[in-house]
Write a structure and sequence with these properties.
alpha/beta
Length: 354
């Protein structure tokens, strides 16, 4: 059994005239149904609510104020789910809707609740359809077209595959050739978009890189050729592959890729070397801190040169840390006047970049 996340954007779901492409939705449902019927677990991350809203409201101009776009998303989300319910029902699959914001991932408690909901839906045999809640969140409307949301979902769920479907055959280099496997040094060709999608190839690259770094095999491919999904899983060179790196624990994946930092800590060279050897960060290795954070919050860890080397969960709040910066463990306890943890960030709660 494989865990598969497929993200489809507005440019695939919407025709040039702004109408939803129902024939494409049928083909998408047929493809995902085949995975589902082979006992794989499938989650669909979709855009298209705004475009569906335009279709209902008879608007043709996509350049509207943000509050109008949010209203159209509220209208279109209903229409979009009606269509998905219909096309998947044709293949005997029931669907459920998950509307979320990126903050649902950065808060550990909300993230765990989300994961439990997902587990419940899959156990009951419902295929989850995920979209960003655009009526209260503007990121997808303005920036990412759900690429980042799909990557965050794949990381949090620890999926085996993430497919970011595009209107091109993967990443194209400056010579106009498809890149079979992503190379960080390759110079890319800038690709044009249209008025319905808000993401771009760079957004897809960032999303795929994050997912692959967390152990998820990722692919940017042409969504108009849906049989490519099965070919990619079988090992064929389809689209642009982002090879999965060594998988990390769910906790460290959340720290590294889903959490939002509440502050910054700058460390000395000795602490930097200790963290690279999988040791804990002690107060004696801290040079300065920035921001106000509580015990259990996430902080970015920077070198003296300002380079981020990781993120971690703090054992102290910012007020306590300002009293014990640069102190050894015995000195820190005396400065605070009570017994306290030895480590500022324990190695089990630290995610290191690279």
């Amino acid at each position: 059994m494989k865990k598969i996340v497929v993200k489809v954007g507005s440019n695939l779901l919407v025709k040039d005239d702004g109408a939803i492409d129902k024939e494409y939705m049928v083909e998408l449902a047929r493809t995902l149904a085949r995975f589902w019927q082979e006992d794989n677990q499938v989650v669909l991350v979709t855009s298209g609510a705004k475009a569906a809203g335009y279709g209902v409201a008879f608007h043709k101009d996509v350049d509207q104020d943000l509050y109008i776009k949010q209203a159209l998303c509220a209208i279109g989300q209903v229409q979009l789910m009606k269509l998905y319910e219909g096309v998947f029902d044709f293949y005997g699959i029931k669907v459920a809707q998950l509307l979320m914001n990126r903050d649902d991932f950065s808060n550990r408690k909300r993230f765990l609740n989300l994961r439990n909901t997902l587990i419940g839906l899959l156990e009951m045999g419902f295929l989850p359809i995920v979209n960003e809640n655009d009526t209260v969140s503007t990121e997808e409307i303005s920036f990412g077209d759900n690429d980042v949301l799909a990557a965050m979902f794949a990381i949090g769920w620890k999926s085996d595959y993430l497919f970011l479907l595009s209107t091109v055959d993967g990443i194209i280099d400056e010579a106009g050739n498809r890149i079979g496997e992503y190379n960080f040094h390759t110079r890319l060709k800038k690709l044009p978009g249209n008025g319905w999608g808000t993401g771009g190839i760079q957004t897809k690259i960032r999303a795929a890189r994050a997912a692959s770094a967390a152990g998820v095999e990722s692919c940017i491919s042409n969504g108009k050729t849906l049989e490519n999904l099965e070919k990619f899983i079988k090992g064929e060179s389809i689209g642009t592959r982002f090879k999965a790196r060594n998988a990390i624990s769910s906790k460290k994946a959340w720290i590294g890729f889903l959490s939002s930092p509440s502050g910054v800590v700058v460390i000395n060279r000795g602490a930097e070397l200790a963290l690279k050897k999988s040791k804990s960060l002690l107060p004696v290795g801290v040079i300065k801190i920035e921001g106000d954070f509580h015990t259990g919050d996430i902080v970015d860890v920077l070198t003296e040169k300002g380079n981020r080397i990781g993120k971690g969960i703090t054992n102290f709040n910012s007020t306590e840390m300002r009293k014990i910066i640069g102190l050894k463990s015995i000195e820190a306890k005396k400065a605070l006047g009570y017994d306290c943890p030895t480590a500022f960030i324990h190695t089990d709660n630290f995610w290191r970049e690279g």
